[in-house]
Task: structure prediction
Amino acid sequence: MRLTVRQSLLFALVLASALCAAQVVPGNLDVHWNEGAADCAKSQQPPIQVHAYEPQTYILRQNPCADFEANFLYLLIGSEKALLIDTGAVTDRNRMPLADTVLRLLPDTGSAKLPLLVVHTHKHLDHRAGDEQFVGVPGVRVVSADLDSVRSFFGFTQWPEGVAHLDLGNRVVDVLPAPGHQFCHVVFYDERAAVVFSGDFLMPGRLLVDDAPAFRQSAVRLIDFLKTRPVSHILGGHIELDATSDTYWFGTQYHPNERALALSREDLLALPAAFAHFNGFYARYSDYVLFSQNRILALEAAVVLVVLAFIVWVMIRLVKRWRRKRAYAKTRSASSHSPLTPAA
Ligand SMILES: [Zn+2]
Ligand SMILES: [Zn+2]
Result:
């Protein structure tokens, strides 16, 4: 049997994918995340919950009672260094002992801990408020979340094109620009566990759209990158949907009956089409909601202005009518009280 060049390439691609898939370290997502409370003052819950997805990958969830954003953070351990993706919504180490928790999870290397690199999916404060806790800690490097720092650290010369590679030692994490939710957003692909860490770019919640065309293009690039790679799960920065796909109220600290954290490759594959039909304001899907906060706020502001203008117009008309009536009444009153002209 002779294979054509095209068939040979296809065969090699399938073989490479199969080999890759065979090496993926499986993980466990069988965990119930603490759900916060309707009255946090009456409910004592640990501020941070740690779940070992597999022995070298930890998922950290900030309790909704500590901050309504209830961020998910991810700690990946390699043989030479560890990587922390995002530092969450709380700065105060007394309310959120993030650095202590992370440092405790790091393996020892002789007299020190494994070096730690702290990076971010994007610049929104709820993903980097905990940075301060790592400042000055020996063996820890924090990469700032601004675009210049992200571009220069990862070596993105053609932003938002390109893929960077972080070698943690026997574990490579790929980094891809993914603007759309926020202009310096990146996503991480862990080759060991075949997990995409997607931040607020893709998660079971409100995908706040800052730039719809950029968002769609980022989805297309990520889909293309993952075409030949296995994907176990896509893990984002928040859960904002319950198990029936209803969104929680914005700002709530109570997440009863939460939907599962993980999304799938299929959810990502559906994203470009979702943007193709996006009305620019709001679109609801079973696993996420597209939501253009800026446009909705602008629309609400415009509606408020129109209503205010209408109220002012009505008031001006009422005042004018009242003045006319008063002038008419004065005229009538003056004519009825005027003295009669004597007859000639
Ligand atoms: Zn965000
Ligand atoms: Zn966020």
